[in-house]
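User: Here's a structure from my thesis project, written as C-alpha cells. My advisor, Dr. K., wants to see whether a designed sequence matches the one we expressed. Can you design one independently, without my sequence as a hint?
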C-alpha cells in the first residue's frame, strides 16, 4: 500500500487504556512509513542515477556533435584549400600553355619569314640563272652560226 502525505497527516492511533496510544499501532505505522520512505529513497536514488547517466549521455552526444561540427569545418576548409590550389594550378597550366603557344606562333612566324626570304632568294637566283643561261645560249648560237658561214675570200 502506498502512503501519501495526507495518510500520514490523518493517521489516527487507537487509544489504549488511560488515554495513551497503542504502541503496536504506532510501531506498525512507523514500519509502514519507514518501508515507504525507504522505497522512495531507493527510487529517488535510482532516478538520480538515471539522470546522471542521461546527463553523461547528453554531454557525450554534445561532445560528439562538437567534434563532428569541427571535423566538418576542417573538411570544408581542406576542400576549399584544395579547390583554391587546383584553381591556381589550372591557372598556372593555362598561363604556361598560353606562353608556349605564343612561342610556337612566334617561331612559326619567324620560320615563315625565313622561308619567304629563301623563296625570294631562290626566285632571284632562278631569274639570274635563266638570264645567264640565255646569254650563254645566245653566245653559243652566234659562235655556231659564225662557224657555219662559208669563208669568202675575195
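Assistant: Designed independently from the structure alone:
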Amino acid at each position: 500500500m502506498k502512503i501519501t502525505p495526507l495518510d500520514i497527516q490523518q493517521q489516527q492511533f487507537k487509544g489504549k487504556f488511560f488515554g495513551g496510544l497503542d504502541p503496536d499501532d504506532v510501531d506498525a505505522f512507523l514500519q509502514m512509513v519507514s518501508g515507504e520512505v525507504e522505497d522512495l529513497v531507493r527510487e529517488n536514488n535510482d532516478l538520480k542515477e538515471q539522470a546522471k547517466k542521461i546527463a553523461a549521455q547528453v554531454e557525450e552526444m554534445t561532445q560528439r556533435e562538437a567534434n563532428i561540427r569541427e571535423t566538418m569545418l576542417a573538411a570544408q576548409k581542406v576542400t576549399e584549400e584544395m579547390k583554391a590550389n587546383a584553381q591556381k594550378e589550372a591557372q598556372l597550366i593555362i598561363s604556361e600553355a598560353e606562353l608556349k603557344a605564343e612561342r610556337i606562333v612566334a617561331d612559326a612566324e619567324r620560320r615563315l619569314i625565313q622561308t619567304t626570304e629563301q623563296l625570294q632568294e631562290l626566285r632571284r637566283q632562278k631569274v639570274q640563272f635563266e638570264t645567264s643561261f640565255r646569254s650563254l645560249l645566245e653566245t653559243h648560237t652566234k659562235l655556231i652560226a659564225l662557224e657555219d658561214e662559208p669563208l669568202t675570200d675575195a
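When you compare it with your expressed construct, this may help: The helical segments are 5-10, 23-148.
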